[in-house]
Amino acid sequence: MSPEGTLDLPSDRPDSAYPVIWCSGLWTLKPSVKVRKVMPDETFYFTILRNPVSRMESSFAYNRNNGPFKMAKNLEDFLNNSKIYYKGTDGHGYLGKDWITFDLGFEPNDSPEQSVLSWHAMDNIFDLVLITEYYDESLVLLKDALCWSFYDVLSFPLNSRSNSTKKTLTLETKEKIKSWNNLDWDMYVYFNNTFWKRVQTFGVERMEHEVKELQKIRTLMSEKCLEDEVDPQKIRDQSLQPYQSGIAKILGYNLKVGLSKDDELLCKRLVTPELQYNTILQNKQRKKLIQRTTTLQILGKPMKNVTKSSLKP
Question: Tens of pLDDT along 192-206?
Answer without folding.
Answer: 999 999 999 999 999
